[in-house]
Automatic annotation (TrEMBL):
Keywords: Signal. GO terms for biological process: lipid catabolic process. SUPFAM superfamilies: alpha/beta-Hydrolases. Residues 1-25 form the signal peptide. This is Lipase. InterPro entries: AB_hydrolase_fold, Lipase_EstA/Esterase_EstB. It comes from Antrihabitans cavernicola. The keyword Signal applies. The lineage of its organism: Bacteria, Bacillati, Actinomycetota, Actinomycetes, Mycobacteriales. GO terms for molecular function: hydrolase activity. Gene3D superfamilies: alpha/beta hydrolase. Pfam families: Lipase_2 (PF01674). The keyword Acyltransferase does not apply.
């Protein structure tokens, strides 16, 4: 999760310069670049939908192959055509650019995958911040007709409070969460975005932003024709509250905790859950069982 740093670095500054900020200004972030895999595999009759993997924002693009080796090996072992797409890249960080622009990058890649392979649809497997981009693509950009499954791991949704990100910075036990601040003082988001451009993308994920409202407030998150499944960890201290932050509580969605599915197995957290063989097997089951 990304959207809590503003409490430390920007809240007081935002209040001090309220009069200087244009009312209603929207957070603006650069689009970022992409790293696209070669589309060198073809779907089969048994596995007709290529799997587009959208990693989270943890780590850097240099670490992606190692972070996702277990998942991609399991998917390919199950016969899938697997394509790891990274977008919104700024300074080696995934999804650090404008979220709508990153979703357009995903849409363009999906179009290329379908045109190149002849597939009618793809499956999406997304982790953490990648799920926000995926949901924006599916819902706001009307990408749902191109997608069969949306499988999310430690995803970030409409129920996050931002406290976990502050805790990761050593700031704990505050009387109010970052999300509560923004809901109480919604004018702060555009102010902080102008004062602290590095937070522009972060603030797009926060309540009151156009991105947040369009994905999580204006109608259901889930889209017709797409099969959704979400896996979260009770030990997730970033996407907080655990489960509440990740789960999509709408009809037809599979929402499960790793610990309930795999009691006694090695523990996972927000990041390592995507590298667990148990998680990889669960993803394969969601796609092909």
């Amino acid at each position: 999760m990304k959207f809590a740093r503003f409490v430390v670095t920007g809240m007081l500054a935002g209040l001090l310069v309220l009069a200087a900020a244009p009312a209603g200004a929207a957070p603006v972030a650069p689009a970022g670049t992409t790293i696209e895999p070669p589309i060198g595999c073809l779907p089969t009759a048994a596995r007709p939908d290529p799997v587009v993997v959208l990693p989270g924002a943890d780590g850097t693009t240099a670490q992606t192959a190692e972070q996702w080796a277990v998942m991609t090996q399991h998917l390919r072992g199950a016969g899938a055509c697997v394509l790891v797409f990274q977008g919104g890249i700024i300074d080696g960080k995934r999804w650090a650019g404008d979220i709508p622009a990153a979703a357009v990058q995903v849409a363009q890649f999906v179009d290329r995958v379908e045109a190149t392979t002849g597939a009618r649809k793809v499956d999406i497997v997304a982790h953490s911040a990648g799920s926000i981009v995926a949901n924006y693509y599916l819902k706001v950009l009307h990408g749902a007709p191109n997608v069969e499954h949306a499988v999310f791991i430690a995803s970030e949704g409409g129920g996050c409070d931002g406290a976990g990100s502050l805790a990761a910075l050593g700031i704990k036990n505050l009387p109010i969460t970052p999300v509560q601040v923004l809901r109480t003082l919604p004018f702060m988001a555009p102010i902080l975005a102008q004062l602290l451009p590095d937070l522009a993308t972060t603030l797009q994920m926060a309540p009151g932003s156009a991105v947040y409202e369009s994905v999580f407030v204006d109608g259901p998150v889930t889209q017709p024709g797409v099969r959704y499944a979400v896996l979260a960890s009770k030990a997730d201290t970033l996407a907080t509250p655990a489960g509440t932050c990740s789960f999509i509580t709408e009809p037809g969605v599979t929402n499960v905790f790793y610990e309930d599915l795999f009691p006694g197995r090695p523990p996972v957290d927000h990041s390592t859950i995507r590298s667990s063989p148990d998680t990889a097997n669960w993803v394969v089951d969601q796609l092909y069982s």
